[in-house]
Specification:
homodimer; 193 residues; alpha+beta; 4-stranded antiparallel sheet; 8 strands; DNA-binding
Chain lengths: 193, 193
Amino acid sequence: MSDFQKIKQALFQLTPIPEREWNEFADNLIFKNFSKGDYLIREGQVEKFIYFLNKGSTRNYFIKDGKEFTVDFHFEGDFVTAYYSFITREPSSVFIELLEETEAIAIPYKLLHEFYNKYQHGDRIGRLMAEAQYIKRLRKEMDLLSLTAEERYAALMTKNPALISTISIKHLSSYLGIQPESLSRIRKLYRKN
Amino acid sequence: MSDFQKIKQALFQLTPIPEREWNEFADNLIFKNFSKGDYLIREGQVEKFIYFLNKGSTRNYFIKDGKEFTVDFHFEGDFVTAYYSFITREPSSVFIELLEETEAIAIPYKLLHEFYNKYQHGDRIGRLMAEAQYIKRLRKEMDLLSLTAEERYAALMTKNPALISTISIKHLSSYLGIQPESLSRIRKLYRKN
DNA sequence: CGCCGAGTTGAACTGAATCAAGAAACGTGG
DNA sequence: CCACGTTTCTTGATTCAGTTCAACTCGGCG
């Protein structure tokens, strides 16, 4: 039960829901453990879950012409899913890879949609989650449009310095939309400070 | 009343709602006319509306270091808003400019949130709108990450050829994340076919 | 008419990619 | 716990897509 404390808190932070609704919801959550290198989903599969990370971290990426492009990273306390596929029920174009030992709680699609239909707070939570996802994507899009590689690195450094120390150059560079070599060079400039 | 037929249809396509709820909602909608060059919102203002376009078209853009970057275009039958600001209640970083004579229906923030609170279908509609917005942003982000300028143009040409004939080079190029001169050159390649 | 913004074209330049090769870090098995 | 192979990171040299700057054309409109 204490396994579910964190996700409960995260959901209640979106919108408080009656304890009775929460209990019914929590009964159908699935606790899962993953090893580094495992996948929550692979390209071509339809996303069946939204995961909450009790512990661990993940990388969402897709492959185009044999090259990997990282869309996002998630960490302890985040919700993760191949959201596009979860919404549209189309096969996912993204992979979600576990970057370390991870404890996650899976919210099944079916459960969530029952919740959407049964309770007002269902769609409320769904709306707030979708809005939060939208904001992340818009921010990143604006950065990609208007900033140079170096500016994007600098922006990330101030906005999310943890990322830069935790994530490999290879993954970070594909998130920033540049090659590892370029990131290495940019990094050198900033190391002097 | 017939003014509201199109928006009613658009909303019902998201999720059907009881006629009574619709009527209450429709009573508080605001019909507005705009001229080419007007603005729905400017940088620094907090977004008070979601607009539905009965007729006309708009451009969402932001300015960084004196340069314009276009995030999106909208046309007849679309919902338009500075969504980031609408959600967060923070001052908008985007402008929304009218590209032609436009008839729009404004949904006030307050009305929408009353609707969210009062009816299950409120948040449902909000969720579906947010999900749709998310999908647009993710698609564009993936294109910016993984495609070259020319590939982005080619993709747009097949996905939305109307855009290419309607929108000026200047606006289109800032949407694709390139300079007008570059778009002009890319276009020349494709003119031969 | 003549102006003005939008689009095109050319030439030079540059940020980042690519190619290549060495150094450092990592993990796995002996 | 070390030795080895594998992957990741760095650095250098070269190339290239797209930018920048500048000049010219075109179509609309006062």
